[in-house]
Every structure is written in structure tokens, then in C-alpha cells.
Protein 1
Amino acid sequence: MKSLWRTLVLIVILTQMHAVWADVVVAPRANEAVEGSISNFYPFAIDIDDPADPLFNANPLTSQRYQQAYDSAVFEGFSGPLAISRISFRPNLESGGAFSATLEDIRISLSTTPLAMGELTTTFADNLGGDEQVFVDGPLTLSSSFTGPAGGPKDFDIHINLSTPFLYDPSQGNLLMDVRNYAGVEGDPPLAMVFDAEWTDSDIYRLYTTYPTLDGVDEAEATFLPGAMGLVTQFTFTPMNEAPTVPAPGAILLGTFGASLVGWLRRRTSL
């Protein structure tokens, strides 16, 4: 009987286990399953040229600072805080391709900007929020297998994982990604490293420098005014104030197995 009770207790514990399902959103929302209207190298694939063709120099910048803002409305339906654990991009259908490249020295952060989308300024510091969290500071390897429908859009398989999730509350403002790319791409840069982007009148804005020196990264002012364009981005996150309610598949299977085991034990003890 002791074994029977131990089994029952184990079943109760296992069947109470729940899976924490991560949610994803895409910005702009309209581009979740629609190819963007343009392609873009910025801000990751700078210093790209073709060694075989000296006349071809797709992106001569050796450093760049770039900010992209995401309207909090992208996260409509979720209440904060949201623990963002991954940022993903996808290659452009026409210009992109499979690649693997290491960025030598890059700094990436997220924060809640105090400004509305249309109020972003060319002064980078003014756009940053007080909750800024740096999650990449040094080398970063990015890659894509260029998988997905032949007619696009391709899969979001260019991932940047956050070692510590960023807690974002959409009710407190818009989300801002700040990128300081100090060194471009290591080795011979792959020309396939082209990202899907979108011109839009909502959801995303960007501003950036176009200086070809390190001074461009640390400059306080952007070269271009904020514009309604940017990389199509997928965020993976977990709502922190919503208790998961769906039992994990493993717990269901174990619970079924346990119930069968209890029935078998009862039959044995009755013999």
C-alpha cells in the first residue's frame, strides 16, 4: 500500500506541471506572413563588398549606430511585463540567401523609449529609456538557412538570444532597439546577408549614422531623420502575469501512464 500511495502522490505532482508557452509577435504586424517592400543591410551587414568585383561595394560603412523603435501597439492583447527572450529577423526573398557570419564587435540593447513614435529625435540619447539593458557586447554570430516558402516570406531564422530576458511593459511606452556596430563583418562578408525590411506608416521607425569611421558609432546625432522603415522583426516572449493553464504534453502522458499503473497495482493487491 505504501508503494500505491507514493505512486498516487507522484501522479498528482506530475499532472499539476504546466508548460510555459512562449508567444511571438511580428513588427510590422501586417508583415507577419507578407514579404517586406524593401531589403536592407543595416545595421548588421555593414562593410560588405565583393572581393571579386572591385567596382561592387554594397555597403562601405566600417561602423554604424542604428536605432529602431517598435510601436507598443504591436504587442496589443498582451499586458506587461513581457519577458522578451529572443529577437529574430528573416532574409530578404530576392536579395538574401543562406549565410553565416561573425560580427567582430557589436553592442545591442533594448529599452522603453519615453518618446512617441513620431517624436523620436536625431539625438540617440534622448530616445533611450532609463531601463536600457545591453544583451550583446562583443562578437556576435548570425546565420540563416534561407528556408521557407519559395514565394516568401522566408523563415525567421536569424536569431539573437537574450542571455537575460528584457522585461517590457507595453503600457509604459514603445520599445527601442539600439545597435552600435563597431567593426562590421569578419572575413569576407557574404553578400547574401540581406534582411527583409518594410516601408510603413506605423509600427516601426529607424534612425542611423552613415559615418565610415568609429566616430560614427559614438556620435550623439544621427545622420538621417527618423523614418517609418526598418527590419521586419519577430519577438519571442513570455507574459509574466499570465499563469499557464495548459498541461504539458509530457505531464498528460505520465498522468495516463500513472493511472494505468494504479489500476494494475489495485488488481495485484486484490489477488
Protein 2
Amino acid sequence: MPIASAAEVVTAPTSDAVADEADRALYAIPTRPDQSGRIVALVTINGRGPFRFMLDTGSNRTVLARSVLAKLGLVADGDAPMAVTGINGSEEAPSVHIDSLDAGALNFRDLRMPVLSGPVLAGLDGILGMDGFAGLKLSADFTRDQISISVSRGKRAAVVYSVIPVEFLSERLLMAEGRIGRVAVKAIIDTGSPHTLGNAALLAALTKEHRRNARFEIRVIDATQTAEFSAIGTVPSFSVGPMIINNLDVHFGSFKIFKTWGIEQQPALLVGMDVLGTLERLSIDYRRREVALLPRDEPSIVQQRWFSLTH
């Protein structure tokens, strides 16, 4: 999940009629209870495409996959590197200049973006970060496998949704206030992460809080490719806004991204697609600074294990 840079973005105001057209579906990879899935948008670059870009709400920078360069007739410039920061580290990546990038109401012009390769981009042409989402609304329907990117009209979500207010931790990085038992938690909404991650400060606080509670369990798993120690803990109850998640598995570790965000000393949780992907719908309104959630009408066994809403 790369970290931000400035870019010129064109998001002209639209009428309701035009906004309705912008709300039309783009695309989403099917998400099922047994897999986290990815949210994918169809993108045109320099008038060509469509290309498949993963939507990553934990990324403040849009990234192009190296495999797309030949299709666009572009060459990465190693003399103009751009800093890219991920979960466990950072690197200087070559960059490329494009004239335009469009996805629904998201319209970049005169954009320089880093070029990356690797497993995270397998089957993808790039990562759509949140650098262009000011004033926009992102909606994902996981039952119909559809997404839309539209201009926010500033209206509150329908009453069937449960709304979570968020603040911007870094530009458009979404952070909500949550709790695990009596422990206050900073919760980051991250559609780019397949798993829910917790930092070391959260693990320390929970170990102290639940040291006599048999429902809080830690088991060590193999090290990641970046050789970071990690462990999985079953959290008895995590609440954020009206949402309550019971028996949630959290991957704990000394992930460097929490330090990059400046919250390594506070209990913090990165809410990934293992949670978000089991919803029926997810809507993020960057103008209103709200995340709206709608559970499935007929929860699967996996969903029944953890998901409930209070009103």
C-alpha cells in the first residue's frame, strides 16, 4: 500500500443526471466467505484500455504495473524514482508519465506514477490509490460484483446502511475509532489488505487486558516474505461504530506501516478484505467522511460467526 504524492486531478461538478450515469457499475472480483477477494475497477489510460486496477483505500498513491508498459508504448524512467511504502518496508521505484487516467468520475491529468511488479500485482494492471478521491464516492456491491466511482452529492447513506464516521489520518487514509473490550483502537479501513492486521501496541494491550480470558488466543505462524514476525490472535469482540465483530482473527506484527502513519505507539488495527469482503455492500463517501456498511441478508456460516449490527 503505497504512500501519497500530489497529482493533478480533474473532478468537475456534475448534475444529478450526470451523477446517476457516473454511478453505473464498473467491475469487481467476486468475493466469497472463503476468500478475501479484491475490489477491481476498469481504468482507461491515455484513452486505451480497459485495464484492471485494484482499489486500495490504504494507498495514497496510484501505481502502474510494469507488465502494462509495453501495451501503452511507455518506458519506465529510472532517473525519476518515486518513493513507495508498503506494509513492511519502502523502496525507490522507477516512474512513468501518463497524460490521462479515467475510472468513472475519477479523472487524472498529467500524472507521474511509480511502476511496480511482484506478487501483489498478479493478475492486475495497477493499484488505484486514493490520491484522486477528494469529493468522490466509492461504492462496492459484493453480491452483484459491481463497483461505482461517482461524484459525492453530500447525502447521507440510506437508512438500511450502518454509518461509521471517519477522519483522514493522512490525506484520504480512512481512520475510525473502535474498541476491543476496554481497549480503544484506531481502525484503518484498507481494501488493499487481504487480512486484518494489528500492531505491536495493540497486541501488548490485549495480552494485558485478556491475560485471564481463554477466548483470546495467540498462535505463531511462519514469517512473511519480508521476514517479519507475525502471530494470529482471535479477538473476542471488536466494535467500530454500530458494527460488532466477534471472534475475529487478527494478524499481529511489527508492521512498519503503522510507524509510517505515526500510530505505532497506539493500539491500531488495519481492517482488511477478510472483514470488508463479507459485506453485501460497502460505500465510502470522501466528501462526507463516512463509511457505510450493509451486511448480507442471508449471512454465511462464516459471517454468522462474527458479524452483527446494533441500532
